[in-house]
Specification:
With 100 residues, this protein is an alpha+beta fold. Strands 2-3-1-4 form a four-stranded antiparallel sheet, with helices on one face. It is elongated. The protein starts with a strand and ends in a 20-residue tail after the last strand.
Length: 100
């Protein structure tokens, strides 16, 4: 699982100009089963996305295609983690630590 931490690098007026394209991109990732939750930070300085997948490189390609990234209005910090404990509603996303 991945935490995608977006930080805006441009004024909010520019972010807002691209918001429709960003939401369309989000919707594509939800439909593909990659994103399971997202939202803006408070204060409004960026956003957070929870993503599922086994391939960090694929997640990096997905974030690079975000219109916010393409147009240089945000920077991503990607944190990979193992969801070893979840709420019952998220049991499908629960993971075991890899064997060494």
């Amino acid at each position: 699982m991945f935490i995608l931490d977006l930080t805006y690098t441009a004024p909010l007026t520019r972010v807002d100009e691209l918001l429709g394209e960003h939401v369309a991109w989000l919707n594509e990732q939800y439909a593909a089963g990659v994103f399971i939750a997202s939202g803006r930070k408070e204060p409004r300085e960026g956003g957070v996305i929870l993503a599922v997948g086994d391939d960090r490189a694929a997640i990096e390609r997905i974030t690079a295609a975000d219109p916010f990234s393409v147009n240089g209005v945000c920077a991503y910090r990607i944190t990979e983690f193992y969801a070893t404990k979840t709420a019952p509603e998220l049991a499908a996303f629960q993971q075991e630590l890899p064997s060494k």
